[in-house]
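Running this now, will post back.
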Amino acid sequence: MKKKENKSSAKAQKILTVLRKILMLSVGCFLYAAAVNLFFEPAELNIGGLTGVGQILNALFHTPIGLVVLILNIPLIILAVRFIGFRFIFWTVYATVVSSLLLDLTAPLTGLLPLNPSDKLLFCILGGAAAGAGLGIVFTQGASTGGTDIIGRLFALLFPHITIGRLMLMCDLAIIISGALVTRKWETALYSAVAIYITSGAIDTVLYGLEKSQAAIIVTGKGQEITQRLLTDLDRGVTRVSSRGGYSGEGNETLICAVSTRQMARLKEVVSSIDPGAFVIFTEVHDIMGDGFKMLY
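Update: finished.
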């Protein structure tokens, strides 16, 4: 009986997880689609990606943006399934279809805001923030809206020395330049580049939060004393690793400690007061999970 109850509970939990994922993806897709029609379309800004291609074709032939995006994504999805794998692409297919449909369903929102679309900077900021928030929500669910994300991953197979982010940026810039060639509005193209930059910042904010953290790597001969002070003064855990200097050959300890950005100054004070000759490296880190930061579950 207990096994059946556990199985039922696990099954119910899986269903709830899937439903939550569907809801989050749908909300993210709606925010993205609404941002395109509320802000990017009225100000004639190109958002890049396949949506940007859809905007160009819409300007030329009045074709529905969402339909164009969906059609262009079909061969990309087939290639992604073939070369990347179905597990990665499953939720991306869902997000791609939903966002494409919503792009056309929310088209009546264009021009609805009581704002002057000639104020392109305002539309850049609002549109970039809204689109980035929507895409960020989609990315947190392990999916994407297709387009340049899939193109970037596919090109990464051919050019592994170039990061996916750079490949995506190259695709977006090429699409923005193409849009400028069609419309002959180079000033608008520059505003579009600003909007994409704001979008990427909003995506990072959703994915990693406003509070960035730092990983401190401390090489010192007084590991015990520094560890005790960090534990008591900063209430942060410390990992101690025995190490040896490559030049001096002397035995040291390397301490690894994750702190918030606000605690960096205090950590420097603690280390310098105990061992002024300690070697300290700070590196920005994202998405720390564990005691004192984000919980794993």
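The longest strand covers residues 251-260. More later if anyone needs it.
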